[in-house]
Amino acid sequence: MRENLGAILQSSTRTCIRQLKYAILERILYDGAKELAQVESDSSKYVLSPDNQEIGEKLSEIGAKLDYPLLNKELVQDVRKLWQDPAIQETYSRGSILQVPDCAQYFMSNLDRLAEVDYVPPKEDMLYARVQTNGAVEVQFSPLGESKIGGEVYRLYDVGGQRNDRRKWIHLFEVLML
């Protein structure tokens, strides 16, 4: 049972990381560059070089389908080339405006490792992979590991941070004792 759960978690984490990579490049950076090009007075710095426009459209189509293929060497080359484009880098430098996740640089620096056929995400990748939380998710853990006998069990609540999500989790703290 534990092995099956581990395999499921690793598989879902790989899928999550794969989706996150496409989301960072396609949805945030590529679309962000287009958006900035429309509103900035010096919009030329947000226009992809002609060599990379086709790659940008290709990745945009992948993102629109929400059917993310495995990251292979060809896609790594495309993603890396697009990431290095001056328009994408300029967009990334304005990340706080576009809400670019701070993990973008980390994943782009590790593309080759992420594309390995036998890739299993280490803890560091899992920590960098951020997925928006909706509502409240409870995780129970013990400092003694799997054996909770004789030990304390801690509950960690991961709650959505948006104002409209608060009504979904505020009841968790009604009987809180400090």
TrEMBL record:
The helical domain is required for self-activation. The keyword S-adenosyl-L-methionine does not apply. The keyword Lipoprotein applies. GO terms for biological process: adenylate cyclase-modulating G protein-coupled receptor signaling pathway. It holds the Pfam family G-alpha. GTP binds at residues 127-133, 158-162. Belongs to the G-alpha family. Guanine nucleotide-binding proteins (G proteins) are involved as modulators or transducers in various transmembrane signaling systems. G proteins are composed of 3 units; alpha, beta and gamma. The alpha chain contains the guanine nucleotide binding site. GO terms for cellular component: cytoplasm; heterotrimeric G-protein complex. This is Guanine nucleotide-binding protein alpha subunit. GO terms for molecular function: G protein-coupled receptor binding; G-protein beta/gamma-subunit complex binding; GTP binding; GTPase activity; metal ion binding. It comes from Setaria viridis. Mg(2+) binds at residue 133. Keywords: Cell membrane, GTP-binding, Hydrolase, Lipoprotein, Magnesium, Membrane, Metal-binding, Myristate, Nucleotide-binding, Palmitate, Transducer. It is found in: Cell membrane. Coiled coil: none annotated. PROSITE patterns: G_ALPHA. Its cofactor is Mg(2+).
